[in-house]
Specification:
11% helix; 140 residues; Thrombin, subunit H; 4-stranded antiparallel beta sheet; 10 strands; 6-stranded antiparallel barrel; 1 helix; mainly beta; globular
Length: 140
Amino acid sequence: MLSRVAASDLRSDRRYEVDTRPAWTHVSDSDGTRKNLLDMRRHARVDAKGRVTLRLAARQGRARLQDISEGGCRLSNCIPALASGQRVGVSLFAQSGELIGNVEARVAWASDHHAGLKFVEVTERSVEAIRTTMRDSAGG
C-alpha cells in the first residue's frame, strides 16, 4: 500500500510516496528514486547489546538494547509492549551490566514487542556515557 505524506520530516518541501509495507526503511520520490530513511537520521547509530529497565506510569518493564545513538535507541523483547507516543523513563545498561545512563524517552514506533525510542531528556553525563558506549561498540 502506498500513501502520500508531507515530507517535512525529510527536510524538503517535495512530496514523497512512502511504501507502508513492512520494508519501511525506504521512501520513493515522485521520480522513482529510492532513499534509505536510515541514512537520513540526525544521529549515527551503532549496534549495542545490553539491557534496559523501563519506567512506565504504573509499573516497570524491561527490554533488550539493540542499537543506540545520541538521540535514541532501538529495543527488542519489550515487556510490557510499548505504544507509539508513550513517554517512558529508561535506564540503559551495557552488556557488562554497567549503567550507561538514565534518560526520558518517547516511543517513536512500536511493533510486536520491538520499539524505537527518541530521547527527550538526557543529562550531559548520560550523553557522554552514550558516546563512550558507541565508540566501544563501534570498535574504536
